[in-house]
Amino acid sequence: xxxxxxxxxxxxxxxxxxxxxxxxxxxxxxxxxxxxxxxxxxxxxxxxxxxxxxxxxxxxxxxxxxxxxxxxxxxxxxxxxxxxxxxxxxxxxxxxxxxxxxxxxxxxxxxxxxxxxxxxxxxxxxxxxxxxxxxxxxxxxxxxxxxx
Length: 148
Prior knowledge:
Blueprint: E1 5-10, E2 17-22, E3 30-32, H1 46-68, E4 75-87, E5 90-104, H2 109-122, H3 124-128, E6 133-141
Parallel strand pairs: 5-6
Antiparallel strand pairs: 1-2, 2-3, 4-5
Helix pairs in contact: 1-2
């Protein structure tokens, strides 16, 4: 599988802006800037897109790992908080914290956390990063859910 994106930047780093598009067409000339990482501009940023990539990958990997043990989650919500830190004149992604809430039929805590650890290990986006990824997962048991 190959995925691609095109980003065009115009102007200086501080006051310029860019447009980013993905091969799927889901993002088409989406406005991005560096400042959107710290301000309230109506655009995205590379760090925000990375946070979204990690969150969406984790939710998908959780669903995949639950299916392996015969469970179908009603919902898996992953919040991703990416921290940028300036060090010695350049910016680094210091850490990513993921908070997952999964709504599932009855599952014991041990199995839930084993599946969660496996999902984290299977996420190709977080594996590609050289940054600590902290995962906190909460199980919300539901009464009636479909079994895969």
